[in-house]
Amino acid sequence: MSKDIRVRYAPSPTGLLHIGNARTALFNYLYARHYGGTFIIRIEDTDRKRHVEDGERSQLENLRWLGMDWDESPETHENYRQSERLELYQKYIDQLLAEGKAYKSYVTEEELAAERERQEAAGETPRYINEYLGMSEEEKAAYIAEREAAGIIPTVRLAVNESGIYKWHDMVKGDIEFEGGNIGGDWVIQKKDGYPTYNFAVVIDDHDMQISHVIRGDDHIANTPKQLMVYEALGWEAPEFGHMTLIINSETGKKLSKRDTNTLQFIEDYRKKGYLPEAVFNFIALLGWNPGGEDEIFSREELIKLFDENRLSKSPAAFDQKKLDWMNNEYIKNADFERIFELAKPFLEKAGRLYEEPETLPQTKNSGLRQANNNSGSGILGFMSVNQLFNYELPDSDSILTDMTKTTKKARKLVELYKPQMKSVDEIVPLTDLFFSDFPELTDAEREVMAEETVPVVLEAFKAKLEAMTDEEFVTENIFPQIKAVQKETGIKGKNLFMPIRIAVSGEMHGPELPETIYLLGREKSIQHIDNMLKEISK
Question: The whole model's pTM is what?
Answer without folding.
Answer: 0.83
